[in-house]
# Entry
Amino acid sequence: MTRPKAVVLLSGGVDSTTTAAIARFEGFDVHALTFDYGQRHRIEIDRAQVVARTLALSEHVILNIDLRRFGGSALTGDIEVPKHRTADEIRTGIPVTYVPARNTVFLSFALAWAEVLDASDIFIGVSAIDYSGYPDCRPEYIAAYERMANLATKAGVEGRQRLEIHTPLSQLSKAQIIRRGIELGVDYGLTSSCYDPTSSGEACGRCDSCLIRLKGFAEAGIADPIVYRTAAAARP
# Structure
């Protein structure tokens, strides 16, 4: 029996890698989409390639768009990445690592590819629990985008496609996400989450993304297998 096709946004981090593993486990023919958008942490592109090969995904496309032309974020402009923030600080407000409209841009490309593939399913690894306050990770945003998407395509207008945007991690903490990935055999040593890694790919252990990741592994009772500048940071 032919498996239904799905487009999965894959960045090479914990969340998107777990999402891809879930989509595959649920029986989808996974077509992964990664963006080279001028991000500071370009190591994630290499990690996404390794993850896609390891999970034996059907197809992996890396799309080049240059969001550095707009800037406005510590990930795409000359703005310092925040370090050593407390949990309360991370939960408060929208940080400078927010990339303007990033998920809207990414989902629009995923929508276009899904229509070409005749796929009715898109997966994105957003979470509303342990996240950095990005507005385009909220459930209400995803629901609104899904409504718009079903008005926006030829396939939708002709009734050939009813698009669903899957967010399997939305109500999971980082520790729960990690435990689910371990159940599915995910090797988190292949992933990268750091916003400001070294040139060799070592994680800083101090940015918001590293701190959220480390907290998740600690709460899951699992040692984080990636390399940090301070080796002790990976211990649960």
